[in-house]
Amino acid sequence: MGLTSALNTSLGGLSLNETSIDVLGNNIANAGTNGFKASNVLFTTQLSRTLGVGSRPTGTNGGTNPRQIGLGALSASIRKDFTQGSVTNSTSPSDLAIQGDGFFILEGPDGQAYSRNGNFELNSQSLLTNQSGFKVQGYGVDEDFNLVTTTLTDIEVPLGDLNVAQATRNVDIGGALLPTGTIGTLGTVLTSGALTDAGNANAAITGATLLTDVEASIGTPLFTVGETLEFTPSKGGRSLDPLTLVVGAGTTAADFATFLDSTLGIQSGGAIPNDGGTGGQPGVTITGGGEFQIVGNSGVVNDINITIGNLTSNGATVAMPFTESQSANGESAITDFVIFDSLGEPVTMKMTSVLESRTSNNTVFRYFLESADDNDGDIAVSNGTITFDSKGKVTNFTPTTFAVSRVLSAADEMDVSLDLSNISGISSQSAGSTLKLDRQDGSDPGTLSSFVIDETGIINGVFDNGIIRTLGQVTLARFSNPQGLLESGNSTFQEGVSSGPPFLVTPGNFGAGTIRAGSIELSNTDVGRNLVDLIVASTNYRGNARVISSVQQLVDELLVLGR
């Protein structure tokens, strides 16, 4: 019985050391595998054969101890070492390393898998995958590039395929305005010749007169049904973008006056002061004598000029001359700048300013905004005031926003915040007044050209127009007992019965660790230690083999006795 027991015990020892050598060999073989976690074998004793349980001490005997002979050892567990491996830099921005206890979540052919190996790349569908084609999982984004954290999805980075534009939301204007210049009290006054109404016994025209009945001389109408009028005046020495008017059977003289006003971008109403010459508000009106009268806004840069040939009908000049009786005055400045709508289309803006009032404590300039790209049929956009104190500092400007209509395009309506606080109220006579665009935050269309992943797993897409947008977020999984995970090949694990369910977290939370992009976690195999352990296991194996050899010799001796 004793020799047989020793033989079986040593056979078990051989098997255990073979297991240990297998594990050590696997560790060493994967010393170059990124994200690999080494293992070690834990042994435990088997049941012992009890020869005697011992006895208690008595008055005449000190007692005896149990007599037991062990029956060898068992493999208690093969334990993974989930300690952090060394992290090294790589040349790919899609390579990721976890500095913590989390696992990457992958979608494979058999469902979800988990890995520490962050060797990822983009496939032909722009999806982030590992070297075996498993898709990296995380949070996606909606159409406005906001993270959608309700469900996991494939991480997509469509380099070269995703285009985006940014509508302008903020505009900052700078410059310097001369407070000692001429106060603007007069606007340009231009008057047409007296016109008659052929439909009303050649009386002076009124706003209700049909445009086809308007005559400069009796019997010679200026306009006919179906023709297209185009008006190209100049303002401040600059030609304005033309607007057009199609003459219909019901088009009136009042409609024509509105057409002139809209093309010129004259602004009136609100707190805009009356013209110092006419005593009325700026705009285009019809006088009692049947004349079209144009009263412009004050400011030299708003001075209007209309010459023969500025008004055409189907390309032919309309014989309606205007006579100037008053020129615009007032210290003023002008600047042009470009903003962008939601489709990235440029919208050209013009801003002028004119000195409106001056006291011993402050100076007030009025600004005007215009845009030929404003789709509401009027180039006038907005106006407001800028107030400076006695030291040339802006104390107030209002309004702080303006709107541009884009109804004739597929873009959204534009509401833009305006910051005029950087304008100085100090300038010299020689420098005069100036305005300039300091900043606007819109951009034309751009294509996704690169991406960066931060330590929280947020994927930031960088477009070639300078815009940065969130494209998604890599998520991690944690397990209450990572030792319970099942290895499934391809450097991945699957949920095991004793691992507990995965706890999904974003990097940087709940101990999952942070992500380091452009880096790789190396194998945590300690080759030196494993080689030492291999020597120990080999020695143990030889020892067990020697025991078997000794038992064999004893059995041979017994067989000799039987001859």
From TrEMBL:
What Pfam family is a match, any one? Answer: FlgE_D2
Please state every residue range assigned to the domain named Flagellar basal-body/hook protein C-terminal: 517-558
Residues annotated as domain Flagellar hook protein FlgE/F/G-like D1:
97-173
Q: Answer whether the UniProt record assigns the keyword Transmembrane to this protein.
A: no
* This protein's GO CC annotations: bacterial-type flagellum basal body; bacterial-type flagellum hook; cytosol
For this UniProt record, give its keywords in alphabetical order, as a comma-separated list. Answer: Bacterial flagellum, Cell projection, Cilium, Flagellum
Q: Which residues form the Flagellar hook protein FlgE D2 domain?
A: 310-436
Domain called Flagellar basal body rod protein N-terminal: residue spans:
7-37
**Cellular compartment(s):** Bacterial flagellum basal body
Q: Single Gene Ontology BP term?
A: bacterial-type flagellum-dependent swarming motility
Q: Which family does it belong to?
A: Belongs to the flagella basal body rod proteins family.
Q: What does this protein do?
A: A flexible structure which links the flagellar filament to the drive apparatus in the basal body.
The record ties this protein, via PANTHER family, to:
FLAGELLAR HOOK PROTEIN FLGE, FLAGELLAR PROTEIN
| Name this polypeptide is given | Flagellar hook protein FlgE
- Species annotation: Gimesia aquarii
Name the gene: flgE
